Amino acid sequence: MAETHRTRLLIIGAGPAGYTAAIYAARAGLAPMVVAGMQPGGQLTITTDVENYPGFAEAIQGPWLMDQMQKQAEHVGAKVMFDLVTAIDLSRRPFRATCDSGDVFEAEAVVIATGAQAKWLGIPGEKELGGFGVSACATCDGFFYRGKDVAVIGGGNSATEEALYLSNLARHVTLVHRRDSLRSEKILQQRLFAKPNVTVLWDTITEEVLADASGRVPVARGLALRHARTSERSELKVDGVFVAIGHAPATALFQGQVGMDAEGYIVTVPGSTRTSVPGVFAAGDVQDRIYRQAVTAAGTGCMAALEAEKFLAAADAETEQVAA
C-alpha cells in the first residue's frame, strides 16, 4: 500500500554525491531520506578496480566502495529507500516526489544527485567487456594501460581530451573517428596532432570490440573496423578501448523545473550547489560536465548537504519570526 513520507531533506540518487550528502545531512540532524533510483551506487557499481579514491593504498572494487557508503549513511541516521522517482513538483514547498511504487515523498529541501551516464556505441562486445578492457573514463582507468596500446573512439572534445590524457600514459593511442575531421576545439586538435604517439583513423566505423577468451575471463584484444567510404574491413589490435562520445545527465525528470544548460546539465550558482529553485540543490555528475569523478561528486554532495542545512535553518528562523 502506497505511503506518504515526510522529511526535511530528500536526496534523489545514491551515488557518491547522494550518499555523501546523506552522511553530512544525517550528522546535522536532518534525518534525510535517500531514494536510490534505478542504479543504486551509480556508475561505480559497474567499475572494477578503483585506485584513485583517497584513503585506500590498494585498489578497491567500485561496488564495495558504494556498499560502504550506503552503510555509513544508514549508520549515521539516513534512510535509504530502494525506489525510483517518476514525477516531482518543485514549484512550491514542501516539494513533492512520486515514486514508481506509488509512495510519495514531501520534503522541505531536495538534493538532486541523479548523476550522468556515458553514451555507448551499442556494438557487440562493448557491454560484455566493460571493465575488462572497455572503459568510458580515461582519468579513471588510463593508469592500467601504462606502456600499452589503446584506442579512443569519438571525434569531439571528450574524445580528443581522452586521447591527450592517454598519450601521456600509453605507448600508443589510436583515435578512431567515423568522419574526416574532428569536432573538437582547434587548440585541442593542434595538441593532439603534435603528439608523436597518437594516430588518427579517419572515416572509420567501429563495429565490434573483439575479445580474447584464452584467460580466466574474457578481455578486450582489439576492434573490428569498417571504412565508411570503401567498406573495407580491418582489425586494430589494442589492449584497451575508451569510448568517448559524450555523457548524458539524468535530468529528464527535472526538465522545465530547474535551470539547465543546452546539454541538460543542471546549472548551479558558481562555487555552490544552489539551483534556480530555492531549497533545491544539485550535486555530482548531474551538474558537473567537466570532472565527473567519484571524489568530486562526493565533494559536491558534502557542499549540498551543508547548504541545505543553512537553507533549512534560515527557513526555520523566518517561520519563528512570523509566528512571533
TrEMBL record:
<keyword id="KW-0676">Redox-active center</keyword>
<dbReference type="InterPro" id="IPR050097">
    <property type="entry name" value="Ferredoxin-NADP_redctase_2"/>
</dbReference>
<comment type="subunit">
    <text>Homodimer.</text>
</comment>
<dbReference type="InterPro" id="IPR005982">
    <property type="entry name" value="Thioredox_Rdtase"/>
</dbReference>
<dbReference type="GO" id="GO:0004791">
    <property type="term" value="F:thioredoxin-disulfide reductase (NADPH) activity"/>
</dbReference>
<protein>
    <recommendedName>
        <fullName>Thioredoxin reductase</fullName>
        <ecNumber>1.8.1.9</ecNumber>
    </recommendedName>
</protein>
<comment type="similarity">
    <text>Belongs to the class-II pyridine nucleotide-disulfide oxidoreductase family.</text>
</comment>
<keyword id="KW-1015">Disulfide bond</keyword>
<keyword id="KW-0560">Oxidoreductase</keyword>
<keyword id="KW-0274">FAD</keyword>
<keyword id="KW-0521">NADP</keyword>
<feature type="domain" description="FAD/NAD(P)-binding">
    <location>
        <begin position="8"/>
        <end position="301"/>
    </location>
</feature>
<dbReference type="Pfam" id="PF07992">
    <property type="entry name" value="Pyr_redox_2"/>
</dbReference>
<dbReference type="InterPro" id="IPR023753">
    <property type="entry name" value="FAD/NAD-binding_dom"/>
</dbReference>
<dbReference type="InterPro" id="IPR008255">
    <property type="entry name" value="Pyr_nucl-diS_OxRdtase_2_AS"/>
</dbReference>
<dbReference type="InterPro" id="IPR036188">
    <property type="entry name" value="FAD/NAD-bd_sf"/>
</dbReference>
<keyword id="KW-0285">Flavoprotein</keyword>
